[in-house]
Amino acid sequence: MAIVLGPNQYGKAETRVVRVYRDDGRHELRDLNVSTVLRGDFADAHTHGDQVNVLPTDSQKNTCFAYAKEKGVGEIEDYALDLARHFVDDIRSVTTARVEVEEYPWERIRVGGQPHPHAFARASSEVRTAAATVIGRHGRGTWYRIVSGLDGLVVMKSTGSEFHGFLKDRYTTLAETDDRILATSLTARWRYQIHRAKPKSWDEAHSQIRQILLERFAGVHSLALQQTLWEMGKAVLAARDDVAEIRLSAPNRHHFLADLAPFGLDNPGEVFFAADRPYGLIQATVQRDDAEDAGPAWDSAAAFA
Amino acid sequence: MAIVLGPNQYGKAETRVVRVYRDDGRHELRDLNVSTVLRGDFADAHTHGDQVNVLPTDSQKNTCFAYAKEKGVGEIEDYALDLARHFVDDIRSVTTARVEVEEYPWERIRVGGQPHPHAFARASSEVRTAAATVIGRHGRGTWYRIVSGLDGLVVMKSTGSEFHGFLKDRYTTLAETDDRILATSLTARWRYQIHRAKPKSWDEAHSQIRQILLERFAGVHSLALQQTLWEMGKAVLAARDDVAEIRLSAPNRHHFLADLAPFGLDNPGEVFFAADRPYGLIQATVQRDDAEDAGPAWDSAAAFA
Amino acid sequence: MAIVLGPNQYGKAETRVVRVYRDDGRHELRDLNVSTVLRGDFADAHTHGDQVNVLPTDSQKNTCFAYAKEKGVGEIEDYALDLARHFVDDIRSVTTARVEVEEYPWERIRVGGQPHPHAFARASSEVRTAAATVIGRHGRGTWYRIVSGLDGLVVMKSTGSEFHGFLKDRYTTLAETDDRILATSLTARWRYQIHRAKPKSWDEAHSQIRQILLERFAGVHSLALQQTLWEMGKAVLAARDDVAEIRLSAPNRHHFLADLAPFGLDNPGEVFFAADRPYGLIQATVQRDDAEDAGPAWDSAAAFA
Amino acid sequence: MAIVLGPNQYGKAETRVVRVYRDDGRHELRDLNVSTVLRGDFADAHTHGDQVNVLPTDSQKNTCFAYAKEKGVGEIEDYALDLARHFVDDIRSVTTARVEVEEYPWERIRVGGQPHPHAFARASSEVRTAAATVIGRHGRGTWYRIVSGLDGLVVMKSTGSEFHGFLKDRYTTLAETDDRILATSLTARWRYQIHRAKPKSWDEAHSQIRQILLERFAGVHSLALQQTLWEMGKAVLAARDDVAEIRLSAPNRHHFLADLAPFGLDNPGEVFFAADRPYGLIQATVQRDDAEDAGPAWDSAAAFA
Hints:
- 4 copies of one chain form a homotetramer.
- By secondary structure, the first copy, chain A, is an alpha+beta fold.
- The first copy, chain A, is built from 5 helices and 13 strands.
- The first copy, chain A, has helices at about 45-50, 55-70, 75-90, 200-220, 225-240, and strands spanning about 5-15, 15-20, 30-40, 95-105, 105-110, 115-120, 125-135, 140-155, 180-190, 245-250, 255, 270-275, 280-290.
- The first copy, chain A, has an 8-stranded antiparallel sheet, with helices on one face. Chain A has a two-stranded antiparallel sheet with strand order 5-6. Chain A has a two-stranded antiparallel sheet with strand order 11-12.
- Chain A starts with a strand and ends in a 17-residue tail after the last strand.
- The mean pLDDT of chain A is about 95.
């Protein structure tokens, strides 16, 4: 028996890069939170404190800023992929790089009805995400996968949701209902196909997928949050050949009917208490049965421990 | 010398009331966070543990739900005022009531381009606020004030902001600049006139004031955040006789130019690091010199200690 | 009628200063979060964008770091007072300065039972606070007040708390109880006397006051949270002539008895659900009837709007 | 090609269970945050909205409370294991259950130097964790694994940390140092052996492992955070045969030396700026090369997407 170093990785987390394009009077801006994760030949740093193979996280941060100038920040999937490829191609000790990007949305302030050329308001608290994973083979980062997504898409239906016919055990007290509020703050992550049907535009793909998720949430008459998630995911895959799989994580933000009977008031689905904790948490994957292999595409820093 | 009870108050904080209007197929919803604050004859509860004058905070919570049905939730200023008046009018020990409401914005999900009748998405993380303060005189809650506002209006200008000519002391190292990013997450609170020029519609007033704040943030060529705040507040008061005063609190969300020179790159206002802490905090009041008296209109629960 | 500039202030918020004393092998550390608030002759910055009287917040930040070296960081009340005096004495446009300090507690890691000379663990999430307010008179900052306190002292009693005999109205459904859990996360702020009975040691005063608060929370058989707060505050003032007044703000962290009857189980005060929102919020001041005047000692940046 | 349901799970997250033991005058309390995750035969709920196999998350919540009475809450590993076994044994559609528990520490308030029998203060913001995963085989939950851990162990060394000899690329500007502050907020998760060397007491194991982590953090003269993590993990496995592997995740909470030279002050490791973002994030596993298989022991709800 021996004690050995197992899976390990390191990087610079949450570098806040803001890129302004000001080539003409009408500015554009991209507001990013960038995290790098490197895997490779770092055993000596652990076991002997030898940094010869260790690119400082400070250098990784510098690279995020420099690439925002050198390569620019167009679609975040490309920016993440450029950075991940660089670490694999140019740093000899790195065998796998994952670059995770969050993008915060802004919209132009309207002045007198016209969009302003350089003044912006934060559009929502929803976050667009992209993660590029690159593996070096034969000294070059040729294998890669892209997982895109969104965090904090907060949605609510005030009707069109039922929950009944469920399994009952000794500890079940929940009443069945054929009309309830359904609300969640959706986290979605989808993995693109790379070789078979890569999207022409990451932005267009993101926009369409987001719209499908919204429309299916609205349109499905829900018998359970599970069913809604499945229908949302299925619709995304049906519409886009370039999506290999999608993972959905949905906290059930419970809205309980307020009991107004003690005050002589009825409450036919009108007044609700929005609860914090506990909450149901429903998680589902919808995938193609012939999807490209994922490799380590899903191995995020957050999932490490 | 004696040890005495000084200012004191109590209430139920953060009751999460969701009101659905479903009278026809097209639902409306109001999503609120309600806090009540009562002042009055509560000395015996402190000094002798005697609750005879103390309405439980649980009852206050119940009242928030019941009023959402009995009185309904239209404009949050009216809902807050109804509740505050009730506590002063109907609870004999209460001499002053303040009801604070936060409202979270939702917008209809569009399906096939059409707004859905009962499916919604959270519009932004910005919060609309209203606080009604009612004082009982001669046994009736006739005196009142309304302070409305917004939290988390996050705005950024990528140019049109300078900062120079400032006072320099022994500890000053900041370089002067004639072009920088100006960004903040604005908190605004404005107090309406009640007797001289009360708004016809709280919703309309809120909407116009918000738009003025946005337009002035965008339009003012800024020599300092102080100047921008003054111009924003001044424009609100100039446009609306019904606003007695406005208070603005603006953290300066610093965006520092990334130093790309070590990598042989120039950076003419293109790549920035968005910093977290520390941050400048600029706070200003703009008011009428003949405004109605405020009384305790500004005495929030958050400001107590 | 005119639109005028009202109360205004600015400063650098949340500068994270860590001071290490390493004069011998046994290090000491002070971990601070420092905010400066300046008031004075800043009207031109607002109305004309003229910064000639405006010391940049960046310079204020630099001063926080420089003073940690020049003056050192002993007791945080002294550090705050030194900084506030400096701004009033040395910056001609400043008439009032308030410096707010939060201190995070650390304790030595014990190795083999012995406290380590330079390795520390964060002791708790409780925060010690101090705010020094200095007013310039005749060109010198001679008037001052000190408000000290603590945030996040989380305490719970599993018995020894009742709540009954309360006022009942139409909306009251709460059952009376003679045994419940009482829990809160206490915020306390106390103002010291400066001229009559200034403490010899701020650290000793803080330590004793904290212990009194804890002991009274534990020792008082509570008929209401109001009563517990009053007894806590009264005991502090009784023990220390140098405290002019104390403000206590206590969210009632409700613990509801879980209903186990449907499962054939009794629950005599054994299993509870800890709720998040809403919560009662009880706030009280205990003061001397002959206390020194407070002036603007309580006017914090957080209370501005 | 077909679109199919992939990995999915659901449960009740963050049920806040507080258990009081009051059999004699000296109370004990356990303060828990419990999450359940069920996997099994739930395809019909997704694809057809059929809940016949779905135990409501509300029932799972009830079970958490009921078990706190029926089985009690001793060591959280046992409580989690009892719950997970129940779901696999008693709910026919469940093939795997994972129950995750966070425990918040409390200590007795001391009154007059004596520990109080029923008054407590929150000891720290550190959280103890346990996750029990049970798989049903032949209709019984016989296979299980336990992963325990801690969150938020915040530690700092004011010296005894170097960082030099690292790999330098085009984007490297970091200076080498032989004396810096090393600080982190440690997340640790360790998996126990079940068949070969199960701990006699989960509490004793947790306590010893925590102490080893602290002592090694303090004792290792660090050439990199990687080295410190390795030494911490190695010491845990060396001391305890019952630990199969340990995962450590450590944000590098950077403390930058304040530049006081512009003010004519030297700064030999005395005054630091504690930065928020970005931060290095170092993650490592230390394991036995002959450890028991982990199965799905690490598949947490948080890691799903």
